[in-house]
């Protein structure tokens, strides 16, 4: 049996990965905030290290955010990153 066939079979039979602490609305809010933050990072002059330093978070948290690993950050940490980058004083999205 080839390795590719074995991996494909394993993916079909494995239960889906889940994060029990996140409900659908929370996940939608996190996803929306992640998109806003990644756009702000893309247009800002700040690098990821500087953002992490200013927010008081480990660099890995910023990397996780940019990789879409929402379960590694709390909503409060995401809002902190948002406020660290956005200096216009606009309210935090949900």
TrEMBL record:
Q: Where is the HigA2-like helix-turn-helix domain?
A: 26-80
A Pfam family of this chain: HTH_37
Please report the name of this protein according to its UniProt entry. Answer: XRE family transcriptional regulator
Q: Which domain of life is it from?
A: Bacteria
Q: What is the lineage of its organism?
A: Bacteria, Pseudomonadati, Pseudomonadota, Gammaproteobacteria, Oceanospirillales
Q: Which InterPro entries match?
A: HigA2-like_HTH, Lambda_DNA-bd_dom_sf
């Amino acid at each position: 049996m080839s390795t590719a066939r074995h991996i494909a079979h394993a993916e079909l039979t494995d239960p889906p990965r889940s994060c029990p602490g996140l409900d659908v609305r929370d996940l939608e809010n996190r996803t929306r905030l992640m998109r806003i933050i990644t756009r702000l990072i893309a247009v800002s002059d700040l690098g990821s290290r500087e953002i992490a330093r200013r927010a008081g978070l480990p660099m890995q948290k910023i990397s996780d955010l940019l990789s879409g690993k929402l379960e590694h950050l709390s909503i409060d940490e995401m809002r902190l990153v948002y406020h660290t980058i956005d200096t216009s004083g606009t309210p935090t999205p949900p």
